[in-house]
Amino acid sequence: MSKGGKTRQRIVAEAATLFNQHGFEGSSMADLMEATGLEKGGIYRHFSTKEELAAEAFDYAWQAATDVGMHDLDSIPNSIDKLKRFMANFIERRPSVPGGCPLLNTAIEADDGNPVLRERARKALQQWQDRLSEIVRTGLKRKEIRSGVDPRKLVTFIIGSLEGALMISRLERNRNALLEAQSRLESYLESEIRLPQRKK
Amino acid sequence: MSKGGKTRQRIVAEAATLFNQHGFEGSSMADLMEATGLEKGGIYRHFSTKEELAAEAFDYAWQAATDVGMHDLDSIPNSIDKLKRFMANFIERRPSVPGGCPLLNTAIEADDGNPVLRERARKALQQWQDRLSEIVRTGLKRKEIRSGVDPRKLVTFIIGSLEGALMISRLERNRNALLEAQSRLESYLESEIRLPQRKK
Q1: Of A22, A125, A165, which has the smallest distance from its Cβ to B171's Cβ?
Q2: Which residues are registered as beta bridge partners of B194?
Q3: Which fold does the domain A57-193 belong to in CATH?
Q4: What is the per-residue pLDDT for A198?
Q5: DSSP 8-state symbol, A26
Q6: I need a surface site. Which of A36, B36, B53, B72 has the fewest CB within 10 A?
Q7: Residue A163: which of A152, A174, A177, A173 has the closest Cα?
Q8: Which ipTM did the prediction report?
Q9: What is the separation, in whole angstroms, between the first and last Cα of chain B?
Q10: What CATH number should be reported for the domain whose range is B54-193?
Q11: What's the farthest any 2 CA atoms get from each other in chain A?
Q12: Which helix (H) or strand (E) holds A6?
């Protein structure tokens, strides 16, 4: 990678932390200059607007969050166990970009605001719903999941409950709400969603 | 109320909408001047800092959200039915301050940021947990709720799932996620929490 390319990448990584912790509106050009150690011109050489940088920083933070959520899922054969691992990853593994979930942060800041960032968050949510729905669809085909379960609705409930619990946990500065959500969602998956396997 | 008192109240109400939609960092002094129709001096006559105004605006928006959530709860005798009405209120009734839930908005913006607003959000969450926990405790005493249910943990799960579903619904611009959360939480309350009443 060229020196310019490396600098660009470093700006995105530093900006991702700043925006994820303090939001788009809460991160000034001065904050970005301090975080990157660059002058204003050094940043604007790579990004024409703060919004363009924030959009790329979101993608970077979202990729990090997705890597954490999806970690090791491929190694688990059963679809319900995959969903449980996803929840455990969400709760236990710390993404490389601090500041909480970029989807939640950006959705809340941009829902009445910046349309570019709002669209980024909307697509991120959709991507997560698609990837988890695919797991549920496979589980339905393999008869690991009860017929009649709506993949989209189920995964949307799981994502929502985890994101809301994350908000509470970050506010209370302990993991109780997240652990409680995990425990209740796991019971729910076991009792209402998993199709018991007949002994062979 | 004095003319000054009325002006102060009007500033708080206008600022509540602005901050709830665009956040503390996303609302400039110019925005506040436009929303209130006052000069900078007219606002600073009543509030010494933007933060002081934002804190009062949060309390105002939170009171409006609480009024909606708790609407008509006293008229319902059974504790499980009270919790279901709370969820229905959260989903169906529109608070007078637009922009979504002030607790969720402020928690997300302030969790790595402004300590005064963070503390306001933390107390608001606690207040909600307390009021709903009290309903669960009464239900336990009256044997409407299964013994062994932890009031705090149950209501924290309900609040988290509703708040996360609200984030998704606002992002997707439809109510599907909220309605799905309501339906799953209602089933959960009926099947796992409600103690069936013996026929008399």
Answers
A1: A125
A2: B145
A3: Tetracycline Repressor; domain 2 (1.10.357)
A4: 74
A5: T
A6: B72
A7: A177
A8: 0.96
A9: 55
A10: 1.10.357.10
A11: 68
A12: helix A3-22
Contact criterion met (CB < 8 Å) for B164 and A168: no
A31 and A17 Cβ atoms separated by less than 8 Å: no
Copy the structure tokens of residue B153.
């943990």
CA distances from B20 to A13, A82, A110, A146 (A): 29, 37, 12, 41
Residue with tokens 């909480």: A100
Give me B50's structure tokens: 């933007």
Burial B143-168 (b: 16+ CB within 10 A, else e): ebbeeebebebbbbbbbbbbbbbbbb
Subunit contact A157:B184, Cβ cutoff 8 A: yes
Asked if A102 is an interface residue toward chain B (Cβ–Cβ < 8 A), one would say no
Q: How far is CA A47 from the centre of its chain?
A: 24
Which residue from B125, B88, B85 is spatially nearest to B103, judged by alpha carbons?
A: B125
Give A-chain residues touching B111 at CB under 8 angstroms: 100, 167, 170-171
DSSP string, B135-184: HHHHHHHTTSB-TT--HHHHHHHHHHHHHHHHHHHHHHTSSHHHHHHHHH
Q: Residue length, chain B? A: 200
Cα dist. A111→A15, A60, A157, A176, B90 in Å?
A: 21, 20, 19, 28, 18
Contact A122 B172 (CB under 8 A): yes
Beta bridge partners, B145, equal B194
Q: pLDDT band at A200, cuts 50/70/90? A: low
The pair of structure tokens assigned to B70 is 């708790």
Show residues of chain B in contact with A181, CB under 8 Å. Answer: 157, 160-161
pLDDT tens-place string over residues B58-102: 999 999 999 999 999 999 999 999 999 999 999 999 889 999 999
Judged by CB atoms closer than 8 Å, whether chains meet at B23 and A113 is answered as yes
Query: Using the beta-carbon criterion (under 8 Å), do A163 and B162 form an inter-chain contact?
Result: no
Residue type, A183: S
Element housing A23 (H / E)? none
Partners of B165 on chain A (C-beta within 8 Å) are: 156-157, 160-161, 164
Question: pTM for the full model?
Answer: 0.96
Closest Cα in chain B, distance from residue A181 (Å)? 6
Residue B182 contacts A, CB cutoff 8 Å: no
